[in-house]
C-alpha cells in the first residue's frame, strides 16, 4: 500500500535531519575538546612555570602565640604577682616577605595608629629610609660616586656589607629627614623586620584606643599579617616588696635576654616574647609560661591566605610560696631598722642579711637583706644578698668543727675535755679565746662548754689533732695541707662552703682561702670561722642540719605548683614540693647531743661567759651559736657579728640565721641577738600561730 504523497515527503524530511544532528553534536564535542586542549596548553605550556612556582610557594605551618603567665601566691593565698591584659596590635610575618613589603605595611598601619618613637634609633630610621626602592637607588648611586665603585664592584660586595655601607651613609649624611608619621612607621618597620618567618611580634601594646582598634580592624585586608590581639603584663596587687625574690620578666620592648636569645628562640620563643629574667620568674619559667596557642597558617606568595586555630593554649601554672608575705615584710623591716640603728657608730657596715627556715622540711619562711652604701649611707632592700653575698662568719661555725672532730675520732662524746689556753707557736703571735688573751683564765672545757663560751683555743686544738700535730707551747706547726680539705669536708656535710640548692638562680658557693703550706697556720683560723666565707642561707642550712639530727635539706622557696580554675581562682595542686634530702651526716645521736647541748648552753648555760644570754628569756626557748669574725675595711679593723639558731630547743620548728658584717671593732652591740629575738617574736605571731 502506498502512502499519500504528503506523508511520504514528511518521512524523507525526518530522515534527512539525522546526519545533521549527529554532525552538530560531533562539532560541539570537538569544540569542548579543543577548549580543553587549549586550557591544558595554557596551564602547562604557557603558564606552567608560573603555576608551579605558585604551588611551590604555598606553605602550611603552625603559628604559636603567648598565653597568660602563671601567677604567684604567698603561703596564705595572697596574690603577689598577677596579670594585666591590654589590647595589642600584632604582626605575623609571612615567609619570603621583603623589606619593600614591610615598608608599605608600616606606612599603612601608622595612618590608623599612633606609635611611640622615643626609642627610635638612627639605625632604625636609616633601615626604614632605605626600604624605599627609590631612596635605595639614590643612595647606591651616591655611594658608587663617592667611593668610585663600578656596578661590578657593588655586585662583588655581600648584601649585608653593602647594606651596612648604605646605612652608614644615610646616618652620616643625615639624609633621611623623616617626618613624625614616618618616624612612627620606622619604629613599626624595625619591629617587623626583627621577626622571623611566621612569628608574631607586638607593634603596640599600650594605650590602644577604641578608634585605633576599629580602624585597624576595618583595614586588616590591606595589611597582610597585621592582627588585633591581647598583651599580658605583670601586675603586683600587693606591692613590689617581694620583687627581689620573685624577680622580673622581660617586656615586649626589651625582648629576649641577649645572652640567651638563640637558645630561647630554639625553644619556640619569639624575639619580643616575655620571659622570666631573674630569680623565681627565671627559675620556674617552664612552669609559669604555660603552653602557647597553635594556629595552622597557610602562606602563598609571601601572604597569609588561611588560618585555623588548632589549640587555644593553656595558661601557665601558678606558684605558691612557703613565704608568708606579711612575715617577709616584717623581717625585712627588722633588718632595715637594725641597720639604720647602728649606722651612725658603724660607718663601714655594708648592710645585713637574714634567713628564716624550717629545719624539718627546708621550707624558707623569709629571706631579707639590706644593702648599705658605705660611701653615701643609702640603704636599699637586698633579699637576694642572703644567697649571693659571702662573709667571714666567725664562731658561729664552731658546731661543725666539733662535729668534724668527733667524726674524725680525735674526741668522743664521752671524752672531749681540753684546756683553753693561748696557742703559742714558733714565729707567730699567740692566738687565744676572747676571754683568755693573757692566759690568766686557763680552764678545762668539755666540747659543749667550749661552744657555750665560744672558745677559739679549743677549736684550734681540735684542728691540730685532726692534722696529726701534737701541740706544745712554742713548737713549730707541722701539719700537712690535707688538713684544709679534711675540715672543709666536714663543714660541707652541714652546708658550709657548698651551694645549698635553694630554688633560685645565682647562689654563691662561698669563698675558700688559700690552702698551702705557706698558709698552714690559717687552718687554725678556719677552725673557729675566721678564714673561709659563707652565705647567710648556708648558715641556715647548717643550723637546720644540726637541729634535725643530720639531714641536709634543700631550702625551698616554692611550696606547690597549682593549676587555675575556670573562674580564674587558684586551682588544684599539680606538684607538692616534698622535703628534698641532699645528704645525711654519718654521725651518731650522742655526737649530735654534744653539739645541741652546747647550743642550748650558749643561751641558757650557767657560765657567765656564755655568749647568747640576752636571749634566755625568750619563749619558746632558743638554742644558738653566736659569731664574731675579725675583718677589715681597707686598713680599718672591723668585725662581722653573726648568729645561727633554732627554736624550740627540744623540738625545733624554725631556724633563724643572720649576719651584720663590717661592724666597728669590739662594739659589743649585740645587734645580732636583738634582731633574732624580734624575728622569733614575729614568727610566732604571724606564721606558726596561724598554722602557715
From TrEMBL:
What's its membrane topology? Single-pass membrane protein
Domain (Penicillin-binding protein dimerisation) ranges: 65-301
Keyword annotations for this protein? Cell membrane, Cell shape, Cell wall biogenesis/degradation, Membrane, Peptidoglycan synthesis, Transmembrane, Transmembrane helix
User: Any transmembrane segments, and where?
Assistant: 20-42
Top-rank lineage group of the source organism: Bacteria
Subcellular location field: Cell membrane
What's one Pfam family the UniProt record gives for this protein?
PBP_dimer
Coiled coil stretches, renumbered: none
Query: Which InterPro entries does the UniProt record give?
Result: Beta-lactam/transpept, Beta-lactam/transpept-like, PBP_dimer, PBP_dimer_sf, PCN-bd_Tpept
Residue span, Penicillin-binding protein transpeptidase domain: 353-679
Tell me the leader sequence span: none
Q: Please state which protein family the record places this protein in.
A: Belongs to the transpeptidase family.
The entry's protein name is Penicillin-binding protein 2
Tell me what organism the protein belongs to. Answer: Dellaglioa carnosa
Amino acid at each position: 500500500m502506498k502512502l499519500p504523497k504528503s506523508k511520504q515527503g514528511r518521512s524523507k524530511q525526518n530522515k534527512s535531519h539525522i546526519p545533521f544532528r549527529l554532525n552538530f553534536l560531533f562539532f560541539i564535542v570537538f569544540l569542548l575538546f579543543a577548549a580543553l586542549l587549549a586550557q591544558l596548553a595554557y596551564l602547562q605550556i604557557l603558564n606552567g612555570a608560573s603555576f608551579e612556582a605558585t604551588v611551590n610557594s604555598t606553605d602550611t605551618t603552625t603559628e604559636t602565640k603567648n598565653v597568660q603567665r602563671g601567677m604567684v601566691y604567698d603561703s596564705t593565698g595572697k596574690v603577689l604577682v598577677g596579670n594585666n591584659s591590654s589590647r595589642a596590635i600584632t604582626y605575623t610575618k609571612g615567609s619570603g616577605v621583603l623589606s619593600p613589603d614591610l615598608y608599605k605595611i608600616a606606612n599603612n598601619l601608622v595612618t590608623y595608629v599612633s606609635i611611640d618613637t622615643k626609642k627610635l634609633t638612627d639605625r632604625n630610621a636609616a633601615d626604614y629610609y632605605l626600604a624605599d626602592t627609590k631612596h635605595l637607588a639614590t643612595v647606591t648611586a651616591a655611594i658608587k660616586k663617592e667611593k668610585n665603585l663600578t656596578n661590578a664592584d657593588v655586585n662583588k660586595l655581600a648584601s649585608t656589607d653593602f647594606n651596612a655601607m648604605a646605612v652608614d651613609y644615610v646616618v652620616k649624611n643625615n639624609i633621611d629627614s623623616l617626618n613624625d608619621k614616618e618616624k612612627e612607621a620606622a619604629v613599626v618597620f624595625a619591629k617587623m623586620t626583627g621577626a622571623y618567618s611566621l612569628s608574631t611580634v607586638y607593634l603596640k601594646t599600650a594605650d590602644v584606643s577604641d578608634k585605633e582598634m576599629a580602624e585597624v580592624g576595618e583595614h586588616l585586608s590591606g595589611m597582610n599579617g597585621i592582627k588585633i590581639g591581647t598583651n599580658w603584663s605583670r601586675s603586683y596587687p600587693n606591692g613590689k616588696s617581694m620583687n627581689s625574690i620573685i624577680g622580673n620578666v622581660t617586656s615586649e620592648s626589651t625582648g629576649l635576654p641577649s645572652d640567651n636569645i638563640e637558645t630561647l628562640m630554639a625553644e619556640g620563643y619569639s624575639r619580643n616574647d616575655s620571659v622570666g629574667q631573674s630569680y623565681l620568674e627565671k627559675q620556674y619559667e617552664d612552669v609559669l609560661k604555660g603552653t602557647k596557642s597553635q594556629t595552622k597558617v597557610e602562606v602563598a606568595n609571601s601572604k597569609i591566605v588561611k588560618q585555623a586555630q588548632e589549640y587555644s593554649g593553656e595558661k601557665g601554672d601558678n606558684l605558691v610560696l612557703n613565704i608568708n608575705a606579711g612575715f617577709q615584710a616584717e623581717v625585712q623591716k627588722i633588718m632595715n631598722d637594725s641597720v639604720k640603728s647602728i649606722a651612725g657608730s658603724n660607718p663601714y657596715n655594708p648592710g645585713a642579711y637574714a634567713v628564716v627556715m624550717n629545719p624539718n622540711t627546708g621550707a624558707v619562711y623569709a629571706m631579707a637583706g639590706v644593702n648599705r652604701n658605705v660611701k653615701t649611707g643609702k640603704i636599699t632592700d637586698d633579699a637576694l644578698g642572703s644567697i649571693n653575698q659571702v662573709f667571714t662568719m666567725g664562731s658561729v661555725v664552731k658546731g661543725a668543727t666539733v662535729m668534724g672532730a668527733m667524726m674524725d675520732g680525735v674526741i668522743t662524746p664521752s671524752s672531749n675535755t681540753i684546756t683553753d689556753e693561748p696557742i703559742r707557736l714558733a714565729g707567730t703571735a699567740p692566738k687565744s679565746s676572747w676571754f683568755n688573751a693573757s692566759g690568766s683564765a686557763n680552764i678545762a672545757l668539755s666540747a659543749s662548754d667550749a661552744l657555750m663560751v665560744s672558745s677559739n683555743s679549743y677549736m684550734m686544738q681540735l684542728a691540730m689533732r685532726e692534722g696529726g700535730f701534737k701541740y706544745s707551747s712554742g713548737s713549730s706547726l707541722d701539719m700537712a695541707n690535707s688538713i684544709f680539705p679534711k675540715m672543709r669536708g666536714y663543714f660541707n656535710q652541714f652546708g658550709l662552703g657548698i651551694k645549698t640548692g635553694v630554688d633560685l638562680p645565682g647562689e654563691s658557693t662561698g669563698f675558700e682561702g688559700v690552702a698551702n703550706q705557706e698558709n698552714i697556720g690559717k687552718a687554725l683560723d678556719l677552725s673557729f670561722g675566721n678564714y673561709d666565707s659563707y652565705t647567710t642561707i648556708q648558715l641556715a642550712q647548717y643550723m637546720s642540719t644540726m637541729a634535725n639530727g643530720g639531714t641536709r635539706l634543700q631550702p625551698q622557696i616554692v611550696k606547690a605548683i597549682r593549676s587555675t580554675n575556670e573562674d580564674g581562682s587558684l586551682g588544684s595542686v599539680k606538684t607538692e614540693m616534698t622535703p628534698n634530702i641532699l645528704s645525711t651526716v654519718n654521725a651518731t645521736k650522742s655526737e649530735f647531743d654534744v653539739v645541741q647541748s652546747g647550743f642550748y648552753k650558749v643561751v641558757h648555760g650557767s657560765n657567765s661567759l656564755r655568749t647568747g644570754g640576752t636571749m634566755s628569756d625568750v619563749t619558746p626557748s632558743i638554742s644558738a651559736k653566736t659569731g664574731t669574725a675579725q675583718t677589715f675595711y681597707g686598713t680599718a679593723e672591723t668585725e662581722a657579728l653573726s648568729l645561727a639558731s633554732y627554736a624550740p630547743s627540744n623540738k625545733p620548728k624554725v631556724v633563724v640565721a643572720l649576719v651584720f658584717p663590717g661592724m666597728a671593732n669590739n662594739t659589743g652591740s649585740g645587734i645580732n641577738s636583738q634582731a633574732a629575738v624580734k624575728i622569733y617574736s614575729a614568727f610566732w605571731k604571724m606564721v606558726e600561730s596561724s598554722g602557715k
